[in-house]
Each structure stands twice: as C-alpha cells, then as structure tokens.
Design brief:
This protein is α/β, with parallel strands linked by helices. The protein has two domains: about 230 residues, Acetylglutamate kinase-like (Carbamate kinase), CATH 3.40.1160.10; about 140 residues, 2-Layer Sandwich (VC0802-like). An eight-stranded mixed sheet has the order 3-5-2-1-8-10-11-9, sandwiched between helices. The protein has a four-stranded antiparallel sheet with strand order 12-17-19-18, with helices on both faces. The protein binds aspartic acid and magnesium ion. The site of magnesium ion has 5 residues, from loops. Aspartic acid binds next to loops.
C-alpha cells in the first residue's frame, strides 16, 4: 500500500481538483490519501480570527465565503445527487460548529493557541470530506477518518506539535488496517493531530507533509507519494538554468537540505520520520503521471560529479557583529544569539571568525535583529553591520565532505566567473556546501556552477 499526499497546490481551482482526482482514481486501491485544505482556506481561517476579534460582523461573511467555496466545488466535482446532499449536510453541521468557535473568540476577545489550532484545523476537515465524496462519485470505495478519532496522538504542543509515532502505529493499524486490507481508500485530513488531553494540535504551517510522513511510518507503507505540478527535484532551478536535469534518486539528507534552503517540494520535517524507518518518498508529477519522478531513498547512488543540485535562496540577509577576539571570548556568541532569538527570530546559520560573528537570517527578520543588536547595552561589540541584497547558494550532494575536490572546483569556478564569494559554510552538513554571493551575481553564479559540474567544463 501507499500513502499519497495531496497539497493545496493541487487543490486550487475546480478543474485542477478534478484533474488530480481523475488522475488518482484508477491508481488507488487500499491506499491512504492525506489532504491539505483547499488552496487559501487556511489563510482565510486564520485571518478570520483576527477580524472576528475586532468585529463580530465579519463572521457571517466569512462563513458564507467558506460555504460558497466548498459547496460550489462539491457541485462541480460530485455528480451523484445523494452523495452531494450527504456532503452538504455534514459540511453544514461542521460549519455551524466552526461559526460558534468564531463567536466564542469574538465574545471572549481572547485568541489562545488552543483556539487558533482548533479553528485552523477546519480547512483540512472540510477538504477531506469533500474529496472522499468526490472520489466515491468516481466509483472508488472510500472512507474518511478524522485524526482525533483514530488516535493520531501528539505531544500537545500547539502550532508546532510532534507526533507520537509508536502510539500512532498501534492506533492506525487498528483503525485503518482493516479498511485498507479490504481495498478501501482512506482519506485523512493533514495538518493536525490530537493531544493526550484531547486538544487539536497542528503541526505548523505546511504540516500536511508531515502528517503524510507519519501515516506512512504508522502503516509501514511501501512509498509516500507527493503529487506536484513540477517534474521533481531538479539539478538547478529551471528558471535560472535552461538545461537543468531531473534528479532521479536522492538521499534523505540531500532532500532535506534542498527543502530547507529553497526547493518548495516538501516540508523539511516530513523527511525525518520516513528516514528513521527507511521508507521511500516519491515525488510524482501531475504533468507527466507515468514518469518516475524523483525517488528519495536510503541508498542514493553517488553521481560522478558528486553534486546533485545547485540550489539558491534569495530570501536571506546577513548581520555581522565585529569585536576583537570573538572566538576567544566566552559568552559572546551566546549573547549575540540570545539577543536575536529573544525577538522570536530564527537564526538560519552562524559563522564565526576571530573578529566577526555572521548571522544568516530570513529577509523579514533583518530589521528587527539589527535593531536589537544595535540597542544592546552595554554594547560589547565594536560595530554591527548589515548586508542586504545577498543570496545563498547551496551545493548539495552525498559524498561532498569526503571529496574535498568539490569545494576547490566550486570556488575556482566562481573565481573564473569573476564573482566574489562572501560567507562560506562548510561542515555543518556532510552533504552540503553553502556560500553567499551578491544578489545581482546569483544567476551568473548558478549557471557557471551548473555548467561546471554537470557539463564537465571545469
Ligand atoms: N493547510 C495548512 C497550511 O496551509 C497545512 C498544509 O497545507 O500543509 O499551512
Ligand atoms: Mg503545503
């Protein structure tokens, strides 16, 4: 059996949803399909909470938007009137409950993490019910199960929960095993699970990928399939490099690096549980459903040029803290890191030298981090500088750390292209080498590196 994840990207317009259902209907039999909310619905639910806190008059229009979107989609996708009616009825009941939560929020004027998770989980509940009915309408034997009813236990942390894999393995086998065995296709809302105390807890934004990974492990599925409207993992961004190639096989570590730093193919957290149990992930393309796509697996063959992909991320900035003897003064790095993380900011990476601590940050966190460091009193630094307009390049490939020639080749390529490399991070990951260039040099750099490694020019 397999677990299939259908993301919000495949759940955009009615026609896109129709085509993914038609594509999957003949390909499923006793499998599990984990679904995201219809595109944009989670944002709508979350924005709706902020609006409801300000003005309860916003709740009714929100409810009609949610109703219209789901009901009109159901009308388009489901032809059998009985199935359509049954969906409308259960949807109506659920929507009514959701409406009460919004009024509760509005009257108490309090938005707790518990309430936020509860409300934002509704997008997935709606879409799972809707797709179950639509797939049944296509002659497939289907059932829908809610995570809270089949024991998808979490650690109870709101907005960033972790699944209890051992407990879920037992529970899923009991609840889903018999269904799957008799050939029923089970739909499961992604994005959330339930705590020991019975509270809905989400896995964070984009968490449906993680839900699907958990289901894969729990059921020991042969493969976890992600259907995407791209070919798979590529050797470079095709918008930058026209002859970028599909990567047919990659390791978990390679996939995790690619996802963490740029490729929006799957949530980095989804790799971990699957890796732990040695199961495979397949990235399948809706554009070419019979193509193999990219396979993420335990043993990824090393390619002759070691590098599998040249990846980039332009959503970064650098803050540099200068002081003498940074490397030798205890506590300095901790002070710097604390000052930034106290603002609730995630530091992506740190590189230190004797005179400088460089922090790699998301673009959106630059202003706040810089201000916090500047305001630190007494100021233990000589100066704090910021560097905007930079871009991160990642060279990813298993075998990179043992094959030091790769780094040499990388930097000689950059040198020949006349490009200045700013910050280099090598070592934290054995499968990746990262460095910064000026944003305006990005395209040339990526092209030159790809050319060098993939077309054997250097
Ligand atoms: N619907 C949730 C979100 O938008 C979870 C997901 O789609 O993975 O973040
Ligand atoms: Mg997603």
């Amino acid at each position: 059996m397999k677990v299939i994840k259908i993301g919000g990207g495949c759940l955009k317009g009615k026609k896109t949803i129709e085509s993914i259902l038609d594509l999957l209907a003949p390909r499923v039999d006793g499998d599990i399909i984990v679904v995201s909310a219809l595109n944009g619905i989670t944002d709508m639910l979350i924005d709706g909470m902020a609006d409801a806190l300000v003005d309860e008059e916003t709740i009714a229009p929100l409810m009609s938007r949610l109703r219209n979107r789901h009901i009109s989609t159901a009308r388009y996708l489901i032809s059998n009137p009985d199935l359509q009616r049954a969906f409308s009825k259960s949807f109506g009941r659920e929507l009514q409950r959701l409406e009460r939560y919004y009024y509760g929020l509005s009257y108490t004027g309090e938005s707790t993490p518990k309430m936020r998770d509860l409300i934002s989980s509704y997008g997935e509940r709606f879409s799972a019910e809707l797709l179950t009915a639509a797939m049944r309408d296509r002659g497939v034997k289907t059932e829908c199960r809610m995570p809270q009813n089949i024991g998808m236990l979490t650690d109870g942390k709101y907005e960033d929960a972790t699944a209890d894999l051992e407990v879920i393995r037992t529970n899923f086998r009991n609840h889903l095993g018999p269904l799957v065995e008799e050939g029923t296709v089970v739909f499961l809302p992604g994005f959330y699970g339930i705590s020991q105390e019975g509270n809905i807890t989400t896995y964070g934004r984009g968490g449906t990928d993680y839900s699907a990974a958990v289901a894969t492990v729990a059921m020991e599925a042969e493969v976890l399939e992600f259907w995407k409207d791209v070919a798979g993992f590529m050797s470079a961004d095709p918008r930058m490099v026209s002859n970028a190639e599909l990567i047919p096989v990659l390791s978990y570590a390679e996939a995790a690096e690619l996802c963490y730093f740029g490729a929006k193919i799957l949530h980095p957290r989804a790799v971990e549980p699957v890796r732990r149990y040695g199961l495979d992930i397949a990235i399948k393309s809706t554009l070419d459903p019979d193509a193999r796509g990219s396979l993420i697996t335990q043993n990824s063959p090393e390619t002759p040029h070691v590098i599998k992909s040249v990846t980039q991320n332009t959503d970064v900035g650098l803050v540099k803290v200068y002081a003498s003897g940074v490397g030798a003064r205890p506590g300095m790095l901790a002070d710097v890191a604390r000052t930034v993380t106290e603002q609730g900011i995630n530091i992506k990476s740190v590189v230190t030298s004797q005179t400088c601590i460089s922090l790699l940050l998301d673009k959106k966190d630059m202003d706040e981090s810089f201000a916090a460091l500047e305001e630190l009193t007494p100021n233990p630094f000589r100066k704090v500088e910021r560097e905007d307009g930079v871009a991160l390049i990642g060279m990813v490939g298993e075998g990179m750390s043992v094959n030091k020639g790769v780094a040499a080749r990388c930097f000689s390529t950059m040198d020949e292209a006349g490009i200045n490399v700013e910050m280099i991070a090598f070592g934290p990951s054995p499968v990746a080498l990262y460095f910064l260039v000026r944003e305006e040099d990005l395209k040339i750099s990526v092209k030159a590196l790809h050319e060098s490694f993939f077309n054997g020019k250097a």
